[in-house]
Amino acid sequence: MEISREKQAVKVSVTTIIVNALLSFLKLFAGIFSHSSAMISDAVHSASDVFSTVIVIIGVRISAKQADDDHQYGHERMECVSAILLSGVLCATGLAIGISGIKTVFSGNISDIPVPGLLALLAAVVSMAVKEGMYWYTRAYAKKLDSGALMADAWHHRSDALSSVGSFLGILGAKLGFPVLDPIASVVICIFIIKAAKDIFCSSIDKM
Questions:
Q1: How many Å apart are CA 95 and CA 42, to the nearest integer?
Q2: Count of alpha carbons within 13 Å of 158, Cβ hemisphere only?
Q3: Helices 148-175 and 37-63, interaxial angle, to 10°?
Q4: Binning pLDDT at 50, 70 and 90, where does residue 66 land?
Q5: Which residues contact 87 (CB under 8 A, 6 or more apart)?
Q6: Least C-beta-crowded within 10 Å: which of 77, 103, 121, 154?
Q7: DSSP assignment, residue 76?
């Protein structure tokens, strides 16, 4: 029996929720244990993925409903609405991370910034690999099912992979003797996240 479009989309979303929950826990532990603000910021980003994927599931379920008296053309636009909400969550997350990084950089206590441990660096590598894999996995199903919400979630995974690249470079720089690069990496992560949020928002508006 062929699995419905809605059930396939929900299956993908549940998978990403489980992976993101585990990954955010790993990165939060690594960030706290290794004293890395960049990795903690990255963990917050992954945690926001869990919430955003829940939005995707809600959007997909609503859009799958049949037309009724109030929605003669069906509920397909609700999937675009969920993608727009996702972009808002993404943007707010990026701004919070960026503000925190800027405050640390301009705190005047650069010499007091702790050098991150090796665990944070390893967590960044794991995150890059896992999130890039989740991007391609979700993207494939988004194209197969022609789902704007799933495609938005795929780009959320890609933005998380890019933010992990920023974390990796910041942590590596800090370990090489430039501790200020760790909070600067948080600011770079912010830029990537906001750019992804903008792209998702514009794409969703075009489809409405």
A1: 13
A2: 17
A3: 180
A4: low
A5: 152, 197, 198, 200, 201, 204
A6: 103
A7: T
Does 26 or 158 have the greater pLDDT score?
A: 26
User: Which of 83, 45, 81, 79 shows the shortest CA–CA distance to 63?
Assistant: 79
Nearest to 80 by CA among 47, 58, 65, 49: 58
In angstroms, rounded to a whole number, what is the distance separating the alpha carbons of residues 83 and 152? 6
Q: Which residues contact 111 (CB under 8 A, 6 or more apart)?
A: 179
- Six-digit token string for 29: 């532990």
For residue 179, give every residue at least 6 positions away whose Cβ sits within 8 Å of its Cβ, in sequence order, or none.
110, 111, 113, 114, 115
Structure tokens at 75: 């509920």
Distance between CA atoms of residues 37 and 113, nearest Å: 9
